[in-house]
Structures are given as C-alpha cells and as structure tokens.
C-alpha cells in the first residue's frame, strides 16, 4: 500500500492515499506531494516551517475562491435553456437509435419539440446578453468578457467548421491582444480562479484549432509566433506560477508535438508559395524537411516507454496516457511530413511504418472516451491506409457506442472513405491531406489566408458576376485586375495593371500571392487577345500562380468562329507554361430572357426569342439541343471548381438543356400568350442574314460594332445554335460533380422575368 502524501504529513492530517491527488488535498485545492522520495523542504527546520506557511496561505486563498454552489445552469437562464435543449437532443437521438429518417413516435416528437423551444429561448437570451454588452460605453468587467469569449469559442468550434465561423475565428485571434488577466501580485504561488481556468482552456482550444486549420489550408499557423511564449514544452515543470499552456491537460498530447505539427504546416505553406522546380529552393526544402523528421523521431525516442504491465489506458498513470497520445500524434505528424516531402506515396516505407504504429496505438483507446481527442491523427493515418487496413479503421469507428454519430466521428470516417475511394486516381504530387479535407467539405474555414484568386476584367460583365459570387460564397480571397482603379466591387481589392507590361503584371501577381487567375476580358480582336496573352505570360513567370482560366464563357470551340484564331493563340501560349489551365463552355446565357426583373451584369441582347413582343426567329429547325445558363449559376460552379485537384482543358456546365421550340412552348405557358414564330435555316444564317425582331433596330444602332458587323454576329450566334456549338455534354459537366448546385431553369427565369416569384 502507498504511503500518505507528504502534504498531509506536514499538516498532520489523515490521508486516504489516493493517487495522483488525495481527497484531502483535492478538497482544499492545494498541491499534493506524493513522491516516493522525501522532499527537500521536509527538513524539520526552516524550510519545513516556510512550506507550512505557504500551504496555509494556499488554503486561505482557495477557501476565498470557493463560492456557493450556484452553478451557471441555475443562475444563467441562457445556460439553463441550452442545457435542457442539449439533454433533450441527446435523448431524442438515443431514442432514434441512429435512424433519423424514420418517423418519430409521439414521445420522440414531444422531446424534439421541447428541445426546439428551449433552444429558441436560449438563443434569444444569448442575443440579449450580447446586445447588453455591445450597448455599453463603459469598460465591461474583464471576467464577464472572459465568459462571453468562452461561449463564443464554444459556439465556433461546436458548429465544426461552418463558413460563418471564419469571421469569429479572426475576432477571437484579435482578442488575444487584450491585457492579460493573469497580471497581479506574485505571492510565490497561485490558485487559478474559474475565469482564469476558463481562459486557459479557451486559449488551448484556439491554439489547437489554429494548428489543425493550418494543415487543412496549407498555411503557417497564425499564432505560430506565439507558440514558444504560450505553450509549455515537454521539459517544463508543472508549476502554478507559470503562465504557459500545458496542451496535454486538454488534448492528451504534449505541446511541443503541436509546435512540430505547426512547423510542418509552415513548411508546406513555404513549399506552396516559393518552391521552384529546382535549384537552391529545392535544396533548402529538403534540408528543412529532414530537420523536422529528425526532431519528430527524437521526440519519439525521448519519451519514456509505457510498460506492458500497466494494462489498458484506463488503468495507467495520467502521464503515461499522455505519452501514448503524444506518440500517436507524432506518428501522424511523420505521415503528414512524408506526404509533403515525398508526395502522396502510400507504399513509402516511412508512411507504412508510421500508419501501422498509429493504428496499433489507437486500438488501445477504442473503448475510452479520450478517443475523441485522437480524431485528427486517426484521420491522417486513415486517409493513407492500405486497402487491407481499411476494415481495421472502420472497426475502430464502429466501436464508439452509443454516441458515434456526434462530433467529429462521422466526419472523420467520411474523409477516410473518400480518400479510399480516390486511391490511385491522382499522381503523387497532385494530391495531399488538405485536398482530402476540402474534397469532403470538412472545412469551410477561411480565409484571408486561403487561395487568392485574381479576376482580370473583374469590373466588367462576366467578371463582375464571378467576383460578386466568389466574395459572397467566401471560400477564396478575390482581387480585381484592371487597367484603371475601379469602384469597389463586392468589397474586393482592386489592383491596377498595364497589360502591355508582362514583368509588372508578374510582380503584382506574386506580391499578392495569387494562386489562380481568371480572365474575363472580352477577347474579340487582336488588342484584347494581346492583353490575355500578356496576362498568361505573366502568370507563367509568377512564382505564386499555379492555375489559369482563359476567357471564353460561352459556346464550344468552333473553327468557323471569328474569334477561333484568338482562342488558339491563348491555348498555344498556355501550353508553353507550367500552369494548369482550362476554359469554360456553358452554352448561351439565360440572363437575356429575364429582363428587366432578373439581376445581371450582361448587356442587353435579343436573340431567337423576344418575350416582350411575343415573337421568335428560331435558328435552324428549332429542335437542335442547346444549353442555356444563368451567368450567376456559372459563377456558382466556378467557386467549387477552383478546389478540384485536376482540370481538363475545357470545363462544361449548364443551367438547362432544351431546344428553341421547347423554349417557346414554355414561354407561351408562362406568359399566357401565343408567340409568332419564324425559322432561319442554316443556309440563310450562313449568308449573314437573320429575321429581325422588334428590339434589333435599337440594339444594332447602339452596338459598339458597325451595324453590318453586329448583324453578322447575330447570324453567327444562330449558326452556332443550329450546328450544336451551344450544346454541352452532360457526363463531363460540373453539374455531375456538384449536384447540390441547382441552376435556374428556363421556366424559372421566364417567371422571374415576368415579375413572378
């Protein structure tokens, strides 16, 4: 049997010999010294007397800090209703037995309604509390602000990566600049108050989220410069006078391991931003990678082994549990580092060895709730698991009853399953952990530090549409390139460039860390074509640009098109670079048929059908298939497309595939009128002739082109429609890749154009 702790011996009190802290010391909130060796201060003289005084002072301060047992759930109505709603939610889910799609019983429905009502009350009270704080002009109580910060952090990370969380994350990071609540008189010892403990927990959670997010976003952790001053190292003694965060107390993993993972993320960010195809950058990258690998293996070797006699994690000492958890994170970090240094090579010996070691370690935790803090290393190892290891990972995830459907558990399994399905589809240097996280939608964090997209011509027609949509979705940082400063477009940054100066454009792209360039310049002549070619050359010279979308935004490529030679010139220039590139084919824009009630930045063009006059001049027979797409739907497809791991030279999307005859039929149904229809055969269109509709006279006169040229362009549009160049393939379209995007249909557009909702 173990001996009484030295603290109780000094106080001459009975000790129940519990480890690591006896009941007496725990109740008094004082340090419990249960070491086997006699402490230095137990000398029967001055040191022992000083320690007795210190312990008495700790007891007095601890007693002063202990308040009546008025828990927040009893005194705070928002917390009370939140607790009731949360317990009702868990109870409902357990009743449902993970079958949320089945009909609820009356009992289940009653509990569910109770949850909803209490949640509504809780949210109302929270909003009221925040309004009270924001309305005040005096300095709010620092402890009350700490409680608010704690609640905000809980909300941010509770929703698990919703897009709205990005703004709060930035605000919380800024809050770190507030004066420290730890400042005060130093007495040689300290007992943390509830508010200080809460702030420590929130800080640890913020550091953890920042590091994990940096892995997903391929950026350096934003708090990396604070790591050494915030995170306690492995050799740092646990002392109450320290103002450092012991990450192992919150996540089971030592803080120095988190610092190493943050350094790996910083290396990946450096590689993404600056590494060239060879030379000194490549050498430096290899050196930095080897240094990190050495530090990781040294960390593994420096940790004391956990003896087999200790049994399962439930039965071993807490410090030994920290060793096991830290080792698991280190093995996952080695896998992560290998994918950065060597590429995505599942068969690489280092990767295989560390995945196996991680899998063996995580099995020891499957029956323990601490597995929740192991989700990240489990996910990293699982993504690159061999096919014969998949079932082991599935078994681990299945052995988490009864709440396996909560938190990150389902998200992790979804990411791993997605990685296994994509095995072998991509080259080793084209895919990484961040891509798997993004592919499964597990992160919507972001991002002033995410991919920067430059839209050339972003204040124009299609360009403005794309800029506004990308900014609204919020998955990318957007800047607008133009020949002159333009009014603020959707709160995006405007950068003035001279399209004749390739070097200056390249410098601007690199300076703003642009990753993808989208060209929306209207390429209709040699001058505009030269601007796009210079932009391509600049993107190729920039160290940051990796991808380019060429201007097209309409029909398929057509050798008979007057701009075909200009498109080929840009294609040839793109093939000279190392850029990954594409151009969009989306058919004919549907916007023209929604005027005047539908939002659009496109100029007015009347083609084939004039809704106002109830007349139509259909090209060909009217039975040829065409694709009609709303410009803002094209932009909606562009946003997720930017994150795809691989691009083809032509990218297809569409709103609805139909024929002009079907279009007229729908228009008649929507307007309740019969249309006067004529047909322009291909032979007529080939001569540059068209059947004019009532608006054409005014539109041709206002056209920037001579009337004969403008009329010819309308006949060219008719030829394209009649010969299939406005048709796009379904099986290769973004509609298949992103089925959640629901484009505006012809009927919906016509109804909107009539002012209907």
From TrEMBL:
One of its GO terms (molecular function) is zinc ion binding. Pfam families: Fungal_trans_2 (PF11951), NmrA (PF05368), Zn_clus (PF00172). The keyword Flavoprotein does not apply. The keyword Nucleus applies. Residues 4-32 form the Zn(2)-C6 fungal-type domain. Keywords: NADP, Nucleus, Oxidoreductase. InterPro entries: Fun_TF, NAD(P)-bd_dom_sf, NmrA-like, NmrA/Isoflavone_reductase-like, Zn2-C6_fun-type_DNA-bd_sf, Zn2Cys6_DnaBD. This is Zn(2)-C6 fungal-type domain-containing protein. It comes from Oidiodendron maius (strain Zn).
């Amino acid at each position: 049997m173990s001996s009484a702790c030295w603290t109780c011996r000094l106080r001459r009190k009975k000790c129940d010999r519990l480890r690591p802290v006896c009941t007496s010391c725990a109740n008094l909130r004082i340090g419990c010294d249960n070491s086997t060796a006699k402490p230095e201060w137990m000398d029967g003289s001055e040191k022992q007397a000083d320690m007795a005084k210190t312990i008495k002072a700790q007891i007095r301060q601890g007693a002063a800090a202990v308040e009546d047992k008025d828990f927040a759930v009893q005194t705070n109505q928002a917390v009370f209703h939140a607790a009731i709603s949360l317990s009702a939610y868990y109870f409902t889910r357990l009743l449902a037995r993970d079958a949320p799609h089945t009909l609820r019983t009356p009992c289940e429905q009653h509990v569910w309604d109770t949850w909803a009502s209490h949640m509504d009350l809780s949210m109302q009270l929270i909003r009221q509390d925040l309004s009270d704080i924001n309305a005040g002009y005096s300095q709010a109580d620092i402890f009350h602000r700490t409680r608010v910060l704690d609640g905000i952090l809980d909300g941010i990370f509770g929703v698990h990566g919703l897009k709205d969380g990005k703004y709060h994350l930035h605000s919380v990071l800024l809050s770190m600049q507030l004066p420290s609540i730890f400042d005060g008189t130093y007495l040689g010892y300290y007992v943390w108050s509830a508010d200080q403990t809460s702030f420590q927990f929130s800080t640890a959670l913020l550091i953890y989220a920042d590091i994990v997010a940096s892995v997903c976003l391929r950026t350096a952790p934003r708090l990396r410069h604070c790591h050494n001053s915030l995170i306690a190292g492995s050799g740092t003694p646990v002392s109450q006078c320290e103002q450092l965060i012991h990450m192992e107390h919150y996540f089971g993993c030592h803080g120095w391991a988190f610092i190493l993972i943050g350094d790996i993320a910083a290396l990946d960010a450096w590689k993404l931003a600056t590494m060239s195809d060879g030379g000194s950058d490549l050498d430096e990258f290899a050196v930095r990678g080897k240094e990190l690998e050495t530090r990781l293996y040294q960390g593994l070797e420096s940790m004391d082994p956990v003896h087999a006699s200790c049994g399962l994690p439930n039965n071993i000492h807490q410090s030994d549990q920290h060793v096991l958890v830290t080792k698991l994170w280190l093995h996952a970090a080695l896998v992560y580092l290998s994918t950065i240094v060597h590429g995505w090579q599942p068969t690489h010996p280092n990767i295989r060895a560390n995945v196996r070691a991680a899998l063996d370690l995580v099995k020891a935790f499957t029956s323990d709730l601490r597995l929740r803090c192991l989700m990240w290393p489990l996910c990293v190892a699982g993504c690159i698991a061999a096919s014969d290891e998949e079932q082991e990972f599935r078994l681990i995830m299945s052995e988490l009853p009864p709440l396996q459907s909560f938190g990150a558990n389902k998200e992790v399994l979804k990411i791993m399953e997605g990685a296994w399905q994509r095995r072998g589809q991509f080259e080793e240097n084209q895919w990484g952990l961040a891509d798997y996280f993004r592919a499964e939608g597990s992160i919507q964090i972001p991002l002033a530090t995410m991919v920067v997209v430059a839209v050339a011509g972003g204040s124009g027609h299609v360009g403005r549409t794309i800029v506004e949509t990308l900014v609204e979705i919020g998955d990318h940082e957007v800047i607008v390139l133009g020949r002159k400063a333009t009014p603020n477009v959707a709160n995006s940054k405007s950068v003035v460039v001279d399209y004749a100066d390739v070097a200056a454009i390249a410098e601007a792209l690199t300076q703003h860390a642009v990753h993808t360039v989208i060209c929306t310049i209207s390429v209709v002549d040699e001058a505009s074509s030269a601007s796009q070619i210079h932009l391509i050359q600049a993107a190729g010279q920039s160290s940051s640009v990796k991808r380019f979308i060429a201007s097209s935004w309409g029909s398929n490529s057509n050798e008979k098109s007057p701009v075909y030679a200009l498109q080929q010139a840009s294609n040839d220039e793109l093939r000279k670079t190392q850029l990954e590139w594409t151009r969009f084919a989306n058919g004919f824009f549907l916007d023209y048929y929604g005027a005047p009630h539908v939002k659009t930045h496109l100029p007015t063009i009347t083609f084939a059908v004039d809704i106002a006059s109830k007349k139509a001049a259909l090209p060909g027979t009217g039975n040829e298939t065409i694709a009609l797409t709303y410009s803002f739907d094209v932009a909606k497809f562009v946003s997720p497309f930017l994150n795809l791991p691989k691009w083809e030279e032509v990218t297809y999307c569409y709103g609805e595939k139909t024929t002009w005859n079907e279009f007229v039929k729908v228009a008649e149904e929507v307007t309740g009128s019969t249309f006067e229809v004529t047909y322009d055969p291909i032979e007529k269109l080939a001569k540059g002739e068209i059947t004019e509709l009532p608006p054409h006279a005014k539109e041709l006169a206002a056209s920037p082109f001579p009337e004969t040229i403008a009329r010819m362009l309308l006949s060219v549009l008719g030829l394209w429609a009649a010969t299939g160049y406005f048709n796009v393939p379904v099986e290769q379209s973004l509609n298949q890749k992103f089925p959640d995007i629901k484009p505006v249909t012809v009927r919906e557009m016509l109804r909107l154009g009539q002012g209907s909702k």
